[in-house]
Design goal:
By secondary structure, this protein is an alpha/beta fold. The chain has helices spanning 4-19, 23-37, 41-45, 62-70, 94-98, 145-150; strands at residues 48-50, 74-80, 87-92, 103-104, 110-111, 124-127, 131-132, 138-139, 157-161, 182-184, 189-191. Strand 4 (103-104) and strand 5 form a beta hairpin. Helix 2 (23-37) packs parallel to helix 4. The chain is globular. The termini are far apart.
Length: 206
């Protein structure tokens, strides 16, 4: 996929397709990825996990959040830092999540307002996406928040959550694009080793 126009058209199409998914499909997808993720080494070995709150039809993370709290893992949510538009990661507790004690951001999602930490202090970050390819290239909503945040960072393990229809053949990777180590869909686990990221031995399946 080389044309910018083609990429923009596909991004628009996938955004619409994702937002039009019935609630039951989204719910089943969230349950399916939660059932799979607890078996994955990156999740098993992680103590500090970055997650997201779904707002635009992304694969829901509620069930994964429940598993994190059940296993006493530390959960962090992204907060957009105003001065450089990078993400910092705010630790939340079960009560804050259950009571939905978050602030509305102007872009439409919710975020915690406490002080955050750098992404390289996390063991695992679980990210939303609009599309991905067989090489681990990720395309998001277009804000560039994850790309800016992950630039020149070798931690944490980068796991994308997606519906199966969000996989495409090849995306022309731009210099600023930050690839994924793996993608989890309701039916598949795709693991990559992109050339410009490193996977810590801590997370490699033996």
């Amino acid at each position: 996929m080389n044309s910018t126009a083609n990429l923009l058209a596909l991004r628009k199409s996938l955004r619409q397709q994702r937002r039009q998914l019935p609630a039951r499909v989204q719910r089943h997808a969230g349950e399916a990825v939660a059932n799979q993720i607890i078996k994955l080494l990156p999740f098993k070995r992680a103590t500090k996990i970055g997650l997201y709150l779904s707002a635009f039809g992304e694969v829901p993370t509620q069930k994964i959040m429940q598993q994190c709290f059940k296993q006493n893992k530390k959960v962090y949510l992204p907060q957009i830092r105003n001065f450089d538009q990078k993400l910092v990661w705010v630790k939340i507790n079960r009560q804050q999540w259950q009571n939905n004690r978050f602030a509305a951001h102007r872009l439409g999602m919710q975020e915690p307002r406490q002080r955050g930490i750098s992404i390289n202090q996390l063991d695992l970050v679980i990210m939303p996406l609009l599309m991905f390819d067989v090489h681990g290239t990720r395309v998001g909503m277009g804000g560039g928040f994850y790309d800016r945040t992950l630039y020149k960072k070798y931690r944490p393990f980068r796991l994308g959550l997606a519906y199966d229809f969000q996989q495409v053949d090849t995306i022309k990777r731009q210099p600023w694009d930050q690839p994924l180590h793996a993608v989890l869909t309701p039916h598949y686990f795709h693991q990559f080793k992109p050339a410009n990221t490193a996977i810590s031995p801590f997370f490699v399946n033996k």
